[in-house]
Design goal:
Elements (H helix, E strand, L loop, with lengths): L12 H12 L18 H11 L8 E6 L6 E8 L3 E9 L4 E9 L16 H17 L8 H9 L26
Antiparallel strand pairs: 1-2, 2-3, 3-4
Helix pairs in contact: 2-4, 3-4
């Protein structure tokens, strides 16, 4: 090799990745040496973590609240920007942290009774929900505690979706886009 090392001195790529991951996210172990599953933190912890992820300049516009979940191992968080959208994020307990598992967006005036399973009645929100789902898939490479921030930052970037011009075409969604049906 060019740097003077022999090929047998270089560990396989998967071994290098495993070592890096074990340093980055060591598993929690109990006194018996087995991985421990910590109990989920309180609702306030998840709400505080989500609130801290909203950019400071948008905190006065963002409305966050926890919604009732069907199971103790899941939570639902609602993020609303009046005049723009409501997003419902479902979380599942991943052994050491809450991990976002599903997200749906709808108009800010809709209650979204089915949470993140809410079918989109409007094309613009169907598209945004699909994009949010793609972001969730991309976040799977991060450990569960680090997935919330990028998701909330992306959702927060949509706060002016019906006020700003598109950088590609220069058009602004008309206000009636939030009431048009498929």
């Amino acid at each position: 090799m060019a740097d003077g090392t022999m090929a047998e001195d270089v560990p396989p790529l998967w071994e290098t990745a495993r070592r890096a991951w074990s340093v980055y996210a060591p598993p929690a172990t109990s006194s018996s040496g087995h991985a421990s599953h910590q109990p989920p933190p309180s609702n306030g912890d998840l709400l505080a973590a989500a609130s801290a992820c909203v950019p400071g300049c948008l905190r006065d516009r963002a409305q966050l609240r926890l919604r009732e979940a069907a199971h103790a191992s899941s939570k639902s968080l609602e993020l609303r920007f009046d005049g723009a959208f409501t997003a419902v994020i479902d979380f599942e307990w991943a052994g050491s942290a809450w991990a976002p598992s599903r997200v749906a967006l709808g108009p800010s005036h809709e209650p979204m009774p089915f949470g993140a399973s809410q079918p989109c009645a409007l094309l613009v929100f169907a598209d945004l929900s699909a994009r949010a789902g793609a972001i969730l898939v991309g976040l799977d490479v991060l450990p569960p505690p680090r997935r919330l921030r990028p998701l909330v930052l992306w959702l927060s970037s949509l706060h002016n979706v019906f006020e700003s011009a598109c950088c590609a075409c220069g058009e602004v969604f008309p206000p009636e886009a939030t009431t048009a049906t498929q």
